[in-house]
Amino acid sequence: MKGIFSIAAVLVPGLLFAQQATSGGSFLVSLLPLILIFVIFYLLLILPQSKYEKKRKEMLASLRKGDRVVTTGGIIGVIQKIEDEIVTLKVAENVNIKIEKQAVRAILEKGGEE
């Protein structure tokens, strides 16, 4: 939504202070292309991004001990412990690392405890 408002902040003053065309066209008809651009922009960019963010939040909320995950850095590990925003991953025998929960990119397989 911030993107729409920033684009509108740039375009609206130009529309308000633009000289009216000599043809007797309606103001609404002249705004129709701009409205169409906003609708296309929303459908192609904002809506898919919000759906992606919603799915990502659900995925992060569903993390459980025993899940096999991959991080944004490409590290694959099994969740050993989940604290507020910190996840402890077992990446090898006797090797545990702590990462932020936001760094989990995907769940490779659900595991262990639910």
Q: How many structural units, i.e. domains?
A: 2
Report the C-alpha radius of gyration, rounded: 24 Å
Main sheet, how many strands, which sense, barrel?
5 strands, antiparallel
Write down the secondary-structure element order. Answer: HHEEEEE
Question: What's the helical proportion of residues?
Answer: 40-55%
First-to-last CA distance? 36 Å
Secondary structure class reads alpha+beta
- Residue runs with pLDDT of under 50 for 5 or more positions: none
Task: Provide the spatial order of strands within the biggest beta sheet.
Answer: 4-3-2-1-5
Quote the beta fraction. 25-35%
- Report the total helices: 2
Q: What is the overall shape?
A: rod-shaped
Q: What is the strand tally?
A: 5
> Mean pLDDT, rounded to whole units?
85
Description:
The chain is of the alpha+beta class. The protein folds into two domains: 2-17 and 25-60; 64-109, SH3 type barrels, CATH 2.30.30. Helix content is 45%, strand content 26%. The chain contains two helices and five strands. A hairpin with a 2-residue loop joins strand 3 and strand 4. The longest helix is centred in the middle third of the chain and has 35 residues, at 27-61. It is rod-shaped. The two termini are 36 Å apart. The model has no long low-confidence stretch (mean pLDDT 85).
